[in-house]
Specification:
Organism: Linnemannia exigua
Low-confidence stretches: none
Subcellular location: Cytoplasm
Distance between the termini: 33 Å
Oligomer: single chain
Number of helices: 3
Structural class: alpha+beta
GO molecular function, one term: molybdopterin synthase activity
Protein name: Molybdopterin synthase catalytic subunit
InterPro entries: MoaE_sf, MOCS2B_euk, Mopterin_biosynth_MoaE
Length: 150
């Protein structure tokens, strides 16, 4: 079993990460790829900017992986890679890849891992807007709180 935990300012490749968790014993590789969208409410998003306390973030991610392995015993390899720095529209900010003997446990684990990552890992996101300010001017920026999905 291999765990890959990485916080990086580099562009993230879903294909490379999926290949890193491949294994002959795996019947499935389940993935999640989070990308920057161009809108939030009525504002046009220019980019996201991520900051992290890297040692603590990596330790928190490893703890999530350990918990996932306790919840689902069919997981083989797990990779979680998160971007820090600017992440423009269309670029990947986070990838989670899990190889497993069967698809159900891998899919459930990926879903749980992204939800828990957003709540527990000290990575902070700032949205930078191109509009939404007074009279259609630059909309500025806003730090977003990590939380669970509604």
């Amino acid at each position: 079993m291999k765990d890959i935990v990485k916080i990086t300012s580099d562009i993230i490749s879903l294909d490379e990460i999926a290949k890193a968790v491949a294994d002959p014993k795996a019947g499935a590789i389940s993935t999640f790829s989070g990308t920057t969208r161009d809108n939030f409410e009525d504002k046009e998003v220019k980019t996201l900017a991520y900051e992290a306390y890297i040692p603590m973030a990596e330790k928190s991610i490893q703890s999530l992986i350990t918990s996932a392995r306790q919840k689902w015993n069919d997981l083989i390899h797990i990779a979680i890679v998160h971007k820090i720095g600017d992440c423009p529209v269309g670029e990947t900010s986070v990838v989670i890849a899990v190889s497993s003997g069967h698809r159900v446990q891998g899919l459930e684990a990926v879903h749980w891992l992204i939800d828990e990552l957003k709540v527990q890992v000290p990575i902070w996101k700032k949205e930078v807007y191109t509009n939404g300010g007074p009279n259609g001017t630059d909309g500025g920026e806003m730090w977003k709180a990590n939380n669970t999905l509604p």
